[in-house]
Amino acid sequence: MSETDSITKSSVRKREVAMQDGVTLKFKQAFGVNGPIRDNVMFVRTPDDFSKEKEVLMYQVGQKVAMYSPEDGKQTFLNGDKRNSNARSVLGLAQSPNKKFIAVCEKCGPTDGAQVSVFYISTCNRIRTMIFPSKGDFSSVVFSGDSKMLVTVSEAPDSQLVVWAWEKEKISMSTNLTSKVTRISCSAFSTATNLQITATGHGYLRLWTVAGGTNLKQQALVSQAQEHENFTDHCWLTSSKECMAAVTEGSTGSTSRTASILLFRTTEEAPFLELQKKIPVLLRGKTRLECIANYGKGFILGGTNGFFSVYEKNDDRKDPYMLIKTFYYQTESFYSICASANDEQVVAYSKTMRLLSFPLGSIDMIEENEVEENFIDVSPGGLHQGAIIDLDICMQKPLIVTCGSDRTVRIWNYIKWNCELAQDFNNDEPSCVAIHPNGLQLIVGFNERIRMYNIMADELKIFRDMPLKGCRELKFSNGGHMFSAAVGYSISVFSTHAYNPQTVFQTLYTFTGHIGPVKRLQWSPDDQIMISAGMDGNVYGWDLNKNARLDDANMLNRPTSYTGLVAEFANKESSWNRVAACSPDGFLLELSWNEDKKDSHSLKELQTGDDPSDVVTALALSNNKKFLFMGTAGGNVKTCDWPLDSEKPIMKNYSVHQPIGFIGSGNVAGVKGIVSIVVSQDDNFLFTTAEDGSIFVLAMQVVVRGLETKATLEPDVRMFNNDAVLVSMDEVEERSEQIIELTKKLDELKNENEMALHMKDMDWQAELKSISEEREVIIKAERVKFGVLQDKFESTARKNNEELELKDEYRVQVVQENENQYEHKLAVEMERFDRLAEEIEAMQQKCEGLLEAQAADHERGMRSLEKLQNGEEQEEEYENELQKLMSVAESDLITEQETTRKMQGIVQTLNTKRAQLKKKNEELKLKTANHELEYAKEKGRRVKLEGTLGHVELHMKEREDALSDKEKTILGLRSTNKTLDNFRYVLDHRLQQLMQERGPIQKHIEGLEKHVRAMYDELVGEFNKKKEIDRTLDKKQLKINTQEKEILSIRNNLRDREREIHSIKRDLTSMVGVSVAKELEELVKEAYRKFVRGEKIKKKVGGTGGVGSGGGGNGASTNMGSTKGSTMKSTNNAVSLAATGGGGGGDDEESVYSNDGRGGGGGGGIDGGYGGGGKLSDEIELTEKALEAQRQTRWVQKEAKDLKRRLGVEMKASQKDSANKLNENASLIKECNSLRRENVEMKRDKEALTHEINDMKERMRRKQMLRESRGGGGTAGTMGTANSTRLLNTPGKNQNQGIDTSSMMSQDSGFASNGPEDPQPQTPLMGTQMRISKSLAELEEGKAANNNNSNGNGMEWNDGYDEPSPGKVAKGSSARQTGKGITLRQEAITLQKKLDARQRETEMQRTEINRLRETLRRMAVMPGGGTVQQEVLVKPDTSNVLYGNVTGGGGGGGGGGGGGNLVITNRT
Predict the structure, then answer these.
(1) ω into residue 559 within 30 of 0, thus cis?
(2) Mean pLDDT for all residues in the chain
(3) Alpha carbon distance 576, 590 (integer Å)
(4) How far is 1396 from 1406, CA to CA, in rounded Å?
(5) Which of 559, 638, 650, 965 could pair with 630 as two cysteines, CB 3.0-4.6 Å apart?
(6) Long-range contact list for 1236-1243, CB < 8 A, 24+ apart?
(7) d(CA 637, CA 741)
(8) What residues contact residue 208 under an 8 Å CB cut-off, 6+ apart?
(9) What's the pLDDT tens digit per position in 728-762?
(10) Distance in angstroms (rounded) separating the CA atoms of residues 1442 and 1466
(11) Quick one: CA torsion of 234, 238, 241, 245, rounded to 10 degrees?
């Protein structure tokens, strides 16, 4: 039996361990928020990592309640694993007044009842769960003021108000509700016995109180006329614990709406709440109030159309709350508002599923136009504002990308837990998205196209745009070099990098075979195979190598539609292929086959559940191929082992997303849940998206035999390429410009800061100087006071010593007298004491004797009485006698007692006096001892004072010695001060000279600048004139070219005519020689045909010339083209050109330039003809002059260009010299400033030395007074005089560092001694004096050089310094610039003269051209021959003659050629 039990227990334990093994999901992060519910968002306080409380934001996301920390972006979730498994969503939230608990209303199944749970905020654990048997769920919940009671309201049809004692999980009281309640709340002072609950709804405003201990009683808070209004919300105000505020929807006007705020105040008696104030609220358009929230100073209103208003409490009883600000933020509708504990921040939940933060603490400084800048998303980057359509994950970066129905694409970082980038597509709605494995690019599919974007730092920049209709699925290959797109019924594979001009992306493959839209795509690890699943219920494989379809997955084809797909491909470790797909009919199918075996296909079918919310909508497989994750329509995530086990499917269910209900075809209700689900590359995180617009991140922990295998679930950042980011060139340039601008601003700020610091330093120095002067004055006054007080102290000390000695003597005398008196009194009292003691002893003896006698008599009487006892008489007698004796004895006894009493009083008095005397004696002894102690102390003090006096005397001697040393130092300082005064005098004199020289130098500089400007203006004018001259010369050159052409044509015509005339003459001459009439007739006819009709006559061979033919001569021709430049340059030399010739012409047309040419004359004739020599001379002269004019014009142009170039060079040199001069002027100013600063430093040093000398004088004066008062000043004065005389008589040096007082300035610094025979050694100056001396020396050298350059004479110095060496130019002087300025001016004048000469030559050339024109005109009408007399042209400013006389010889008759000489001379 025991063995059976142990086996049973072990099997159960193994089964439990097996149930625990697998993968466990833990909620890590969530992006999104859900609602609207009451108090959807609130601030709570939780402990941080250091056990300190921090304020976090709590809100609902999916089926979870998250707590978000704005500081680090991390989240924690309420742990609700132990709740009812049928709980699907959150319907209400409430925080307890003690800030420790949170109540959550949860939606369950229709038969599970209403459920509310209480969580402990610090641990996020569930501590209580209460279920109420109702058909409706709890929609609102609130804690009582003492946090011990919990009030819930259930929805219709069983709408009830239930009060719970939640710690005991028991119902305290409940009541039915007849109207729909949208909000309940409790006052801050509500308890279990004094419970006050307020509720609002449409036409409903009630107060519930406890009546009879267990019954709830309601009462209306407004009249029936006001109950028709819609009370949208209410709250109890923390600014006034006895006040409650409710808001109404208000009535609608033509252009606005008027709402109301009802303020109620509590009372001690019924009705417990009374209306105090009604505040109207004017709203724009159709704006409605939706919520009200309290904060420490008042309350906040929120509504539609972005209405946001803040009220604050004041001290006015009539108007207790004052409106602070009202804003309208875009078109947002605020459904829930909460304020932080410090009232600095407000967070609002809007209709578009946004959490917006507003700075409530600075509301007074926010204007209406700045409202959009102050409403900020709580989550950095914002959230999706609608359903999420698609999801993809990056391999090399910790990024996921999503696209939503809000037409946005967002990129999330799951290490930083924020939205890094959000792109809004206003016009296009994205349908699918895929991110490249490297994380630098992504593809977005739209209805009409797909676009590839580069992921930049802060935006998505479009890279390629391809028209493609109906793309519903995009998937990058694992290598990233390809991507697939599901377009309708086909699948296209494109190249990521290749470009096609027609299709943008190069199409690699196109697969067809589906008869319905393709829903899911899956790539193999080697990117060689792709699996697709469609809405037609078919699953196909595609081989990219063979470009063919694989039929291995055909067994999955069935009449349904697939929404999810996962695949495992064969590899080295396993040869099995597995494909799983899910369909809306609630089945999950897995197909597996072995590549090495035929007909090895195996199909598994798994039903996920009968409920529509259990339908699997998305699948994901872990990278280690061990676990399968399923997303359902109900928003849940299920996990199971991979491959599937149809017999024992081990599944774990996690409630994640909020299901969204919808009405399908046939009015069938359904739900939408998870859309996409992916696993991170390292199998650490599972990402899910759903129709509720949220993204959940779940950490994956693998459990083996009940133990967790992962030490941490944080991703390893080393596996990601986080450093790479794309940046556009425009952004780089913009950032560079921003950096440059910021650098400039930084430099400006630095300069301003340095200037401000410099000004502050100057102010502080001035203030410090004034304070130091005041301090020195105060120190002097205090020193004087100290001297006076010290004298007083010494005199007072002496007086006190004398008085102390007198008092000591008097005290000793008084003490002696007191001792004598006390001893005398003590002796008298001792004697009296002895006498009284003797008397007391005698009286005691007497009393004792009497007592003894009485005792003896008494004994005798007693014996006699005893003898007489027998007789009465005797007894009476005895009694009488006894009475008498007793009376006598009593009287004696009384007397003795009185006497004794008196004696005792006397003794007691004596004892008291004795004790007093002893006490006085002891006091006297104590006083004597105290006096002796004081005397000893005074004696010790006197000894100390004597020692101190000796020490003071020794110190005084040391001080006198120190004073004597100080006097010596003072004498040395005085001599140094005299030297410094002399040097200061020299510096002042030199500064005065520099200041005097500064004016003329400045004037000279200004004059030079004016002269340079005038020269520049003059050169500009000359340059403009030169431009005009160039233009005129160009025009003249054109005219000359025209004239040359005309001359050439005229000359050709003249030559043709002359040839024709010569030909006629020759023919006439030949005719004259013919004697035969027939030949003469033929000759005349031939001449007629030749000269009249213009016919060509064939030459006869063997003809001879007639009588008188002119001979031709050939002249040597030397081309003068190469000497065009030298011709003009040698105009001062005599040049002669001679020409002799007979008939005919020269070899070259340029033979006119020959030095010795022989030209053809003219042939004679019958009538003598015309002399060709004269015409030729005129022609040569005209040609030569025209060519010479052209040559001179070209030379003038060349010279003008040269002058222009030289003018530009000179202008640049002038500008450079001006800049150098300005720089040297700046250096001169800088040097003057340095001299001023050094002068100021010298003055400060002098003032410091003066103060120190005055202090030394003051101390010497006081010491002298002390010595005089003590009678020892004469010797010190004599020593001081001797030392002073000895120091003053020192020939060349003083006691301060060996400074040479006879020559303070060395030759190295620009100053010399009085003469070369000076035997005293020279000591170079150090520090500031050396710098000042060098600066002065350089200035003196510059002045001397300037004077030498300007006057040529040296400058005589009367200050005792050597004359500076001539020729040196000091830094900052203007001698060199003056010389350059004079040279520049001379060159400018020379250029001006040259320009004038060139202008005169141009005018001369113009006159010569005019003369040539006139000559040509006269030649055109001249009949020929003769002599032409040329006028001599004289140069305007010289005596040179350009051309001499030109003569030509007449032609001889009958064929003789007249020779003529052409002579052109130039006389100097």
Answers:
(1) no
(2) 77
(3) 12
(4) 15
(5) 638
(6) 1238/1328, 1238/1331, 1238/1332, 1238/1335, 1239/987, 1239/991, 1239/1332, 1241/1328, 1242/980, 1242/984, 1242/987, 1242/1328, 1242/1332
(7) 54
(8) 161, 175, 195, 196, 197, 198, 199, 216, 217, 218
(9) 888 889 889 999 999 999 999 998 988 888 888 88
(10) 6
(11) -20
Instruction: Give the side-chain half-sphere CA count within 13 A for 727.
Output: 10
CA–CA dist 1401, 107 (Å, integer): 115
C-alpha angle 1020/1024/1030, rounded to 5°?
Answer: 140
**Three-state DSSP class for residue 498:** strand
Cα dihedral 802, 803, 808, 810 sign: positive
Bridging pattern class, strands 1156-1157 and 1138-1139: parallel
Among candidate residues 123, 120, 94, the one with its CA nearest the CA of residue 106:
94
Q: Alpha-carbon dihedral of residues 797, 799, 804, 807, nearest 10 degrees?
A: -160
Burial of 1213 (0-12, 13-18, 19+ CB in 10 A): middle
Residues paired with 449 in a beta bridge: 467
The DSSP string of 274-331 is: EEEEEEEEEEETT--EEEEEEETTEEEEEESTTEEEEEEE-S-SSS-EEEEEEEE-TT
Look at 67-76, 163-172, 1256-1265 and tell me which has the smallest mean pLDDT: 1256-1265
Beta strands in 360-398 (DSSP E): 376-377, 388-393
d(CA 164, CA 118): 12
709 class by beta-carbon count within 10 Å (0-12 exposed, 13-18 middle, 19+ buried):
exposed
Report d(CA 440, CA 438) in Å as an integer. 6
Cα–Cα dist 110/91, whole Å: 15
| Residue that the structure tokens 């005895």 belong to | 878
d(CA 55, CA 34): 21
> Rounded CA gap, 1115 and 1145, in Å?
9
pTM: 0.55
Q: Which of 624, 618, 732 is nearest to 675 (CA)?
A: 618
pLDDT, tens digit (0-9, with 9 covering 90-100), for 954-1002: 888 887 888 888 888 888 888 888 888 787 778 888 788 777 777 777 7
Q: Which two tokens stand for residue 541?
A: 């494989």
First to last CA, the chain: 159
Q: Do the beta carbons of residue 1385 and residue 1015 sit within 8 Å?
A: yes
Give the number of other Cβ atoms within 10 Å of residue 1382's Cβ: 13
- Gap between the Cα atoms of 1407 and 41, Å rounded: 106
Residue 733 phi, psi dihedral angles, 5° rounding: -65, -40
Backbone angles phi, psi at 1123, to 5 degrees: -110, 25
Instruction: Give the list of residues 6+ apart from residue 199 with CB closer than 8 angstroms, or none.
Output: 153, 161, 177, 181, 183, 184, 205, 206, 208
DSSP 172-194: EEEEE-SS-EEEEEE-TT--SSS
Q: In the numeric block, which tokens belong to residue 807?
A: 């008092």
Lookup: tokens for 1194: 């070209």
Do 1392 and 1159 contact (CB within 8 A), yes or no? no
Amino acid at 1103: G
Phi, psi values for residue 1426, rounded to 5°: 85, -170
Q: Which amino acid is at 721?
A: N
What is each CA distance from 994 to 110, 1328, 1375, in whole angstroms?
108, 19, 16
Helix (H, G, I), strand (E, B) or coil at 469: coil
CA atoms of 449 and 446, how far apart (whole Å): 5
104 φ/ψ angles, rounded to the nearest 5 degrees? -125, 125
pLDDT beyond 50 at 1404: yes
With a CB cutoff of 8 Å and minimum separation 6, the contacts of 1320 are 1291, 1292, 1300, 1302, 1303, 1313
Q: How far apart are CA 836 and CA 905, in angstroms?
A: 12
